[in-house]
Amino acid sequence: DITLWGLEIGLLTMRKGETSKFIFKPSYAYGQQGCPPVIPPNATVLFEVELLNFIDSAEADAFFELTPEQQDTFPLEKVLKVAEAERQLGNFLYRKRNFECARDRYKKVLSILGRSSCSEAEQCQINTSKLLVLLNLSLTYLKLECPARALAYGEAALEIDQRNAKALFRCGQACLYMTQYEKARDFLLRAQHIEPFNHEINGELKKLASRYQAYMEEKREMCCRMFASLRSSD
Length: 234
Hints:
This protein is mainly alpha-helical. It folds into 2 domains: 5-51, Roll (Chitinase A, domain 3), CATH 3.10.50.40; 57-232, Serine Threonine Protein Phosphatase 5, Tetratricopeptide repeat, CATH 1.25.40.10. Helix content is 65%, strand content 5%. It has 10 helices and 2 strands. It has helices at residues 5-11, 58-64, 68-72, 76-95, 99-112, 120-143, 147-160, 165-177, 181-194, 199-233; strands at residues 19-24, 45-50. It has a two-stranded antiparallel sheet with strand order 1-2. α6 packs parallel to α8 (165-177) and α8 (165-177) runs antiparallel to α9. The mean pLDDT is 89. This is peptidylprolyl isomerase. It catalyses: [protein]-peptidylproline (omega=180) = [protein]-peptidylproline (omega=0). Its EC number is 5.2.1.8. One of its GO terms (biological process) is spermatogenesis. It is an enzyme of class 5 (isomerase).
């Protein structure tokens, strides 16, 4: 989303980790209008830019210009490269807390990886890429406060790798969100068995214990009030 023509041109000349200074005439910067009150009209501006990282989307752009039939015949190596570029864009949007757009990117990646493979080795490669996206979707739906969807994608990840601690953790989080305490405990204990020193998993188990205790106390109080009401009516 670069808005200045000069920056768009300048960035294309840079390498990762490079720092550059650019002087832009008004036609390459803010033009006749400027950007009040900071940039006056017809201003020549100086930008100092450090290129920390970038995502090469050229392969992805070329892929999405193809017809569905052509996409099906696209070499798997290039499909996986396109999928990873799109997933990285989703990660960028997630870090910006734009969870809806991140979700849409991740779903787009799943559609890319939905092709039928020709061999077991190819399916293994596809599943490796798909697993990362399913985990991303599970986490994103937790952020969107849609725990049922988060659980569904977490369980889909477990179909690929049933011992994936992160998938088990996401499923446990989703169940805890939905107050399904027994299921949450099962998922989290399985995750802890695989990664016993994982602070996130152990922290979630403590949260589960605290909430379950509060839930049981509330339930006991409710029962006591109900029986007290019955005795008084007698």
